[in-house]
Amino acid sequence: MELDQLDQIAAAHLEGYLVRKDLVRTFARQFPVPTYVVEFLLGRYCASTDPDEIEEGLEIVQRQLESRTVRAGEEELFKARAYKNGTVKLIDLVSARFSQKDNGYVATLPSVQLNRVRINDNVVDDNERLLTGGFYAEITLEYDSLIAEEKGDAFGIKDLRPIQLSKRDVLDDLAEARKQFTSQQWKDFLLRSIGLEANALSDRAKDANLLRMVPFVERNYNLVELGPRGTGKSHLFQQVSPYAHLISGGKATIAKMFVNNASGARGLVCQYDVVCFDEVSGISFDSKEGINIMKGYMESGEFSRGKESIRADGSMVFVGNFDVDVEHQQRVGHLFGPLPPEMRDDTAWMDRIHCYLPAGMCRK
């Protein structure tokens, strides 16, 4: 693959941070993990422009994805490997909850259908997002036959490594590299980083796609994106970054979104940069109080439960589909029509929205 000018500038000043997007497509949909998991592994083993190094890294990534991702029907195979060998490594969406019965935490690993996995308290303390939906991680799963004989939970998490960028000085490196790009080149580079080729987009479409990224970098930014189906509205929040959490339909609880009064565990808005409500027309809170807390949080970035006032930085994004074309929607209602009743006719909620993005302006 021949590098264009933009790639050459990036390769010269962002060594170790680059992933070739054509390599990502090599593994796209082959394995049951989001795109950012593949990019994480490619960034570790293929962060180079040398063809030989890339080829060697690709073989490692292929082996790891084949041996550590659990396909449908392979659940018992991975459990058997842990039983025979003592441990097995896998990549999975791990979450945890407090168990009063066990007087401690237990983890859930959905890909191997285990919902009572031993996990040390200090692992949960160091990774609080385990308690609010979890995250993808590289996991060493162990099997303890002695505990099994005592009728306990034989499976346990021996080691856990979150899949995310771990360098703390990354912003300094990016700021220094930014000086080498013109404004237009930097825009194109950002779009390329999420898998879009800027040359195929109009200036308006570029700006619309960049606007989708604002909630990741602006605290407490509230965005609504409504439009036709198939415009990739949720892709950015589900596939590209581990710092966003996607809620798809169903009920949203106060405990999950904000804080659990019983345990004191902070909710999604405290743990993620962005909380995205997908198919927002089907979203509802478990009580009317939930909408009121949300409105207060969207206004000030704070919410109160009990005696404590809690501040959080998480942005909120609401995405949904028009069942009719926009012109017809405007004739029969207004552009907030696809939202649930608690939101679409509440002017106080509308006042807290910073941006309304028509999804038709973006390319999938």
TrEMBL record:
Domain BREX system Lon protease-like BrxL N-terminal, chain residue ranges per copy: 13-143
Top-level division of the source organism's lineage: Bacteria
Protein name: BREX system Lon protease-like BrxL N-terminal domain-containing protein
Source organism per UniProt: Nitrincola nitratireducens
